[in-house]
Design a protein that fits this description.
The structure is a homodimer. By secondary structure, the first copy, chain A, is mainly α. Helix content of chain A is 71%, strand content 1%. In chain A, helix 10 (206-233) runs antiparallel to helix 13 (254-280). Chain A is globular and about 55 Å long.
């Protein structure tokens, strides 16, 4: 990744950040401890990848209004709640994330349960604000809402987390099919929601949505396999976290199940296919060079 | 409460139950442990008060279609997730509810966190199905969705729970104003969502919605004060749980803060005012005798 492109990503990340900040709940009142915990969780940082992918897919299909903004905030709120609850002692029991205390470690367990609930609920409160945006197209918003809700829920992201926990608790090595289900749901579903909602809000057809959902699913799985690969091939300096943790935790990954070479081959195949799908849209005049570069950088990243 | 009316409530509860069951998530697949926990939580019983109030308020304003049904399921899903999370060890640490194991006690803590998340998310997935109902009026559905989301969130029910936890942790006796905030949000907000959404889906005007929201808020607070009163005046046989638990836990209630006589007086005043508001609607031809009787029975109940 060259310096100019890194700078460009950083610029766009800051614009996304500004949108996000404008939708955060206001502090104060009797519920202020949990409102503070909500703000803390969202402000703990991150690449803001999902809202960025949503915005760029919206632009890919010619979207230019502000109706996408409440949805950008909503998807980041959903992503945020998911790790607030994932980090809980009853779940992964993580005290630190990106070098900062996790929400329960900073605010208490009960507050983190409620902050997570509040963030998820607030995601829908926020997305619903799209109906009040200038030039809002109600049919498109309803479709985007339904996609977002479905991909976030028990048949989407939560389903992936449920399967992941089940696999860990079973004490048995996960089957390849089960691991693919986990990656497709835990990680890829929210990438599909991001890109799919962006497409729908810009007026993409059912056929175009199907292309985007397919590509986003492949991107999500490739992204996750890259995570598994980096856990073996990366260095502490690059990743900022201990490597080899999956193997030490006997966690089934693409690499432990299929070996490094096969995992790398599948990751490349998925990535190339996804990029090909996106590029096929240019025949209908849909092009977004930044989006393509962003996705390439995600799935070939070294950290 | 006479026997005929009790039978009538039971009949209507069974119809509500049938609607609810038709919207529950299907079992099976890699996420089945959490899907089972979701079903278990909803099927653990309850009076189904909120969907019943919603349906009867919908009928009060002349509603007769099925567009209210996904919303009836949605509000019960929200009510259900709230106690799945409330019962967690990190929150109230309750192992039993209505004589049955709570969700975390039956399925594990991580599963209960995810089942609660999944129920909340599924509430929105379900309510969104209203757009696909025959004769759906999109503007009404959007208003009902926004009301539901707002009343369930950090400025509604979750805000009340956050304030409640904050008050308990502070070690200080709650102020009367703070206790009113907790009752208005933790309990009344979801009653407002139930009756308000029913009204909106039937086409109630902004002015009529305001009357319903005011009445529902008073009903919710009166219902909660009645809970506080019964904790002092009820018997174990009537309530099916130990009495005097609030005093033993030094929990601030209307009775501990204001005394039994004043609490009883305020409860009656709120109840009478709410009933008066509902009856005032009959001047415009809106009447639902069952709804009025149901509400009277709720706020004068002995268990």
């Amino acid at each position: 990744m060259n310096d100019d492109f890194e700078k460009e990503i950083e610029n766009r990340r800051e614009s996304v950040e500004a949108v996000l900040k404008s939708y955060l709940p206001e502090k104060g009142g009797y519920a202020s401890a949990v409102i503070d915990a909500m703000n803390y969780s969202v402000n703990a940082g991150g690449k803001r990848l999902r809202p960025m992918l949503m915005l760029e897919t919206y632009r890919l299909f010619g979207g230019s209004g502000r109706v996408v903004e409440p949805f950008m905030a909503a998807i980041e709120l959903i992503h945020t709640y998911s790790f607030v609850h994932d980090d809980l002692p009853a779940m992964d029991n993580d005290e630190y994330r990106r070098g900062k205390k996790t929400t329960w470690a900073a605010y208490g367990e009960a507050e983190a349960v409620l902050a997570g609930d509040a963030l998820l609920n607030y995601a829908f409160e926020t997305a619903l604000k799209a109906f009040a945006c200038e030039g809002a197209d109600e049919k498109r918003i309803v479709k985007a809402l339904s996609l977002l809700a479905g991909k976030a829920g028990i048949y989407g992201m939560i389903g992936g987390q449920a399967a992941d926990i089940d696999a860990e608790r079973s004490g048995r090595q996960a089957e390849p099919e089960q691991l693919l289900y986990i990656h497709e749901h835990k990680t890829a579903a929210l990438i599909q929601a991001a890109m799919g909602a962006g497409a729908l809000l810009a007026g993409a057809s059912d056929k175009e949505l199907a292309v985007i959902e397919k590509a986003a699913g492949e991107i999500g799985v490739a992204f996750q396999i890259q995570d598994d690969i980096l856990d073996v091939t990366g260095t502490f300096e690059e990743l900022g976290k201990p490597i080899g943790s999956d193997e030490r935790n006997s966690k089934a990954t693409y690499v432990t199940l299929k070996g490094l070479d096969e995992a790398t081959r599948e990751q490349k195949e998925l990535s190339n296919h996804a990029i090909g799908l996106l590029e096929s849209l240019s025949a209908d005049g849909y092009q977004n060079e930044f989006l393509t570069k962003l996705i390439k950088s995600l799935i070939t990243r070294l950290k």
